[in-house]
Every structure is written in C-alpha cells, then in structure tokens.
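Thread amino acids onto this structure.
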C-alpha cells in the first residue's frame, strides 16, 4: 500500500494544471523574444558607434534580467509540488495540480 501511495503521488505530480500549461506556452514564445531583443540591443550599437555602445550593453543586460520570466516559470511547478507534498504529509492525497487549483 505504501508503494501504491508513492505511485499515486508521483502520478499526481506529473499531471499539469491549466496554469502550468499557460505559463509554459507563454515562456516558449516570450523567452526567446527577450533573448533576441537583448542580443540585438547589445550588438547593433557596437556596429554603429563602438564608443557609446557601453550604455546599450548595460541596457541589454538590464532588459535580460528584468524581462526574464524565469521566476514565473520556476515558481509555478514548485508551488504545486510543495502543496502536493504538504498535503501528502497530512495524509491528504490530491490527484495533481489540476485538482489542487
């Protein structure tokens, strides 16, 4: 029965909720756009005017740090895993993030 419980908890963690799926779809499009924009902002000014390009490089790094959705992408699954594990510690079995929402 313990192995069955472990199997059910692992199965619950693999089921994705609508929020997780939305965040993943958003990040698939948004993250490459931010990286490309930051790369262009860092490189094009070097080609036009190498003397004043230092400020643009700093802006590109700032854009990369501020606009990166890493916190959102990482925090969503971690929240569900934490909630599922806390519930399991209290002998409550939730069948995935879908049912947790």
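Threaded sequence (101 positions):
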């Amino acid at each position: 029965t313990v192995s069955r419980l472990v199997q059910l908890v692992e199965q619950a963690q693999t089921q994705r909720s609508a929020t997780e799926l939305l965040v993943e779809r958003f990040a698939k499009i948004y993250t490459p756009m931010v990286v490309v924009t930051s790369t262009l902002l860092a490189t094009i000014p070097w080609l036009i005017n190498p003397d004043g390009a230092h400020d643009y490089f700093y802006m590109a790094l700032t854009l990369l740090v501020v606009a990166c959705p890493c916190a959102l992408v990482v925090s969503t699954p971690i929240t569900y895993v934490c909630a599922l594990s806390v519930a399991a510690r209290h002998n409550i079995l939730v069948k995935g993030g879908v049912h947790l929402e």
